Amino acid sequence: MSPNERKELQDEYSLLFNVFEKYGNATISIKAMGTTLVTAGLLFSFKENNLWMVGFVIILTFSLWYLEASWKAWQATYDNLLMEIERAMRDKTNIAAFQARTEWCKRWHTNRRKTIWVELWKLYVLFPYILVIAAGLIYLGHYAYIKYI
Predict the structure, then answer these.
(1) Which of 9, 73, 129, 137 allows an S-S link to 116, with CB 3.0 to 4.6 Å?
(2) What does residue 127 show for φ and ψ, rounded to 5 degrees?
(3) How many domains does the chain have?
């Protein structure tokens, strides 16, 4: 690997790492704002005894959970590219620089569904969404039990 090729890979690595970090920050923002809003909505719907609102909050929570998993899946695809560049730099093997979009698209379109599915069930993605969903379902179940049994 020539010094010029090494410099190009270092530049690409820096760019990709910044993108990787931005995805991480975005998921934290989604989780912070989203869970605050759905928790407030759930508590308000409990107070008002509004079953439709409880259902809406549960659906919204599923949507936020899926959105965060999607962002984490996009981030994971960049992580694979970063590891490939690190391996090339460490082993001093030649790989073409500035192929991030091509490689990202190839990996994303090949593994998209699987990657999102895996991210959905990681604990740092799953929580606190599962708690909001469980609270809403328990409330609906309790209401149905009292009303119909």
Answers:
(1) 73
(2) -90, 145
(3) 1
